[in-house]
Structure formats: C-alpha cells, structure tokens
Amino acid sequence: MNYCENGTITDFQILDFSNFETGHILLTVGIIIMYLMAILGNLMITMVIGLVPNLHTPMYFFLCNLSVVDVIYVSSSLPKLLSITITQDNRIYFAGCISQLFFFTFSGTCDIFVLTSMAVDRYVAICRPLQYTLIMNRRVCATMSAMCWTVSAVNSLLLTLLTSVLEFCNSHEISHFFCEFKTMTALSSSDTTSREIFIFVEDIIIAFVPFSLTVASYVQIISTILKIRLSETRLKAFSSCTSHLTTVILFYGPILILYMKPESEYSKELDNLFSLLYVAVVPMLNPFVYSLRNKDVLDAVRKINARNIFST
Ligand SMILES: *[C@@H]1O[C@H](CO)[C@@H](O)[C@H](O)[C@H]1NC(C)=O
Fold first, then answer.
1. How confident is the model at residue 276 (pLDDT cuts 50, 70, 90)?
2. Ligand 1 probe mutation, 49, 145, 152, most atoms within 8 A of CB
3. In terms of pTM, does the model score above 0.70?
C-alpha cells in the first residue's frame, strides 16, 4: 500500500508493547509507578534545593536543572505509552509524533550537557579547589546552563524539522514505543543518505564531545584524589563526586551496552523492555542517588521537617 497517494499523513501506529499480551497489566502498572516516582522525586529535589540556602551551590543548581530536564524527558514518552497500553489504541497523530520527537531529543541532549557541566564543576572543585569560587561563579554557571538549554533546543529543532519533511509512503508502523529520530528516519521512504553526514557531525557534537569531556574530567579527578595523602581528606573529596559519578554511570552505561551488544532478532522484545527501563528508570533514580547517598541533602530534608514540626 502506498500511503503517499491518498493525501497527507494523518497518523502512525506505535507497535511495541501494544500487542504485549502476557504482562499487559504488569506493564501498565509498572509504567504508572515509574512515571509518578520520576515526577515526584524530581519535583521534590527541585523544591528542596530551592528551599535550602545551604544547597545554593553550582552542583545543586545543576542538579536542579537535571531534575527539570528529567521531568520533561519522562513526560515526552511515558504518558502516551500509558494511554496506548490502557486503551489498546496504538495510533498517534503526526503532530503528536513530531512533538514527542522534539521533546525527547531536547531533554535527552540537555541531560547530556547538564551532566557534562556537572563533571566540569566537580573537576574544578577537586583539581582547582583554591580557584573554585572564582571560576564557578554565578555568571559562569548561568551561562553554562543557558548554553545547555539553547544548544539542546536548537539541535532538537533541527532534527525535528528534518524529520517533519520526510515522506512515509511505505509504512506507518513505528517499531518502537515512541517517536524518535533514528526510528523515524529508518521508517521514511525519502532518500536519507544526504542526512548521514549531518547526523554524524551531530552525534560527535552532542554525544562524543560531552562524553569525552566527562571521562577526561574524571580521569583528572581520580588522579588528583589518589595523590591526596591524608586519607580523611581523600575520602571527603571522593564522596563529593560519588553521586554525580553514579548518575553518569547510570546514564551512559546502558547506552554503551546497547551500542556494543550484537544485533539479534530474538531479543527484540527484551531490547524494548531494556530501553523502556532506560527511558523510565534512569530519570527516576537521580533523586534517590542524590538524596540517599548525600549527607547535605539528607540534612537539609531533616531541617525542613524539623522546621515544619516546630512551626505547627
Ligand atoms: C539551572 O542552573 C543555573 C546555573 O547554575 C541556575 O542559575 C538556574 O536557576 C537553574 N535552573 C533550574 C530551572 O534549575
């Protein structure tokens, strides 16, 4: 069937998980729980950081950015997926698909940039401690965060525009659980070879450079920490990075595994479950990583509680 002969595109079908019969209820409940936890956890982190002056440092401001980005990230794909699993109606309008693509790319890219800014912040804190307040001043931080948001928005807008002019004559069946750039490009019947170069350059700027910068920061950080003689100071320096390092590993680990793993037809469903876990679980974990393992945040939460108890 040629979709292009009968006029404009109206909708697509999201295939994955729509015919997932065995664990259907489990999947639905799982998505609801993960979505709520991601939203609540991240909003709580944002509130705690906003309320507690002790946490008004570059690291926590960036963490606040990360939480806001994560809320957008989960909201770009999970609500629609939820409505698909509940209603069993797997259609998505072209406009809906394109906006999913925009918000997912935007928040994914922004996630990477904010994580990289945090790595730079940790690098300055550990390797240039005396100049820390000078280098990471308010203006620098605000500029860094503005850059994260702007570059992500421009990049995502470009990819969205590139996708919106594609033709989809052969199939409207999206073999993924939401609309995403690579899936849509593969589905298209337009000639996409000329885009490959653009995508290659884009991948380098958006993924390779930030990732290398993060790794380089941590190589420096670890070698600096190893040189500290006093074990107490060493531990203190290291523990100021553990939350961020955990987040970085949680974020990049699954991507690296997915990329390096050999392609296989049989594990398609497993692959999907894995990417669903990735899209839903990682944003949900950040608040836990930062609050459970972090004395500053725990103390802050305790203080807020104490204040509330005393004031009533
Ligand atoms: C993002 O980070 C910047 C710089 O640290 C900070 O000024 C800003 O308030 C943060 N914004 C949000 C929404 O968290």
1. confident
2. 145
3. yes
